[in-house]
Amino acid sequence: MILPAIGRKPACRRSRRKRGYSMLEVMIAVIVISLVGTSAVMALRMSLRTLNGSRTSAMAGTVIREIREYTLPLNLEELDALNGASWSPPIMGDGQALPGAANMSLNLSVTPVDEEDLITQVDPDESNTRRLRAVVFAYQRMILDVQWVVSET
Q1: Which positions ≥6 away from 105 have C-beta within 8 Å?
Q2: Which of 106, 92, 111, 110 is nearest to 143 (CA)?
Q3: Which residues of the chain have pLDDT under 50?
Q4: Is the previous residue joined to 89 through a cis bond, with omega within 30 degrees of 0?
Q5: Amino acid 146: pLDDT
Q6: What is the pTM of this model?
Q7: How far apart are CA 43 and CA 100, in angstroms?
Q8: DSSP secondary-structure letter at 13?
Q9: CB-based burial, 123-150: b 16+ in 10 Å, e otherwise
Q10: What is the pLDDT of residues 6-18, one digit of tens each?
Q11: How far apart are the first and last CA of the chain?
């Protein structure tokens, strides 16, 4: 005859809580972590894209400022000669290539306009006023389109 051990509790199955996590719980945790990680990566990509767009817009503003500086001392005949000019990379006020703008280009058009109606195009000999239009491109996409008026007295 076998006598039961005195003072020992009978062996019982371990409770479910002490066995660890079920496969379903692990899968749910993996899915939640994946969703959070994907959201974080997407937010980071959007902020980097916004930052790059801001940097490109700022550089386009610099390009416009430099071309205005370049055209400032020119007379009307010299301005007319620049009609249809294109620079890639754009130039600075001294005519040198603008550093950091290798992916950009600049198109300039010069239009003689009526002195009292800046929309009406006239023959160059009839007016001392020119409308200049500078269009800045980055990666073949238009970034900035600016117009200004130059007049000789």
Answers
A1: 86, 87, 88, 89, 90, 136, 137
A2: 106
A3: none
A4: yes
A5: 96
A6: 0.67
A7: 27
A8: P
A9: ebeebebbbbebbbbbeeeebbebeeeb
A10: 666 655 555 555 6
A11: 128
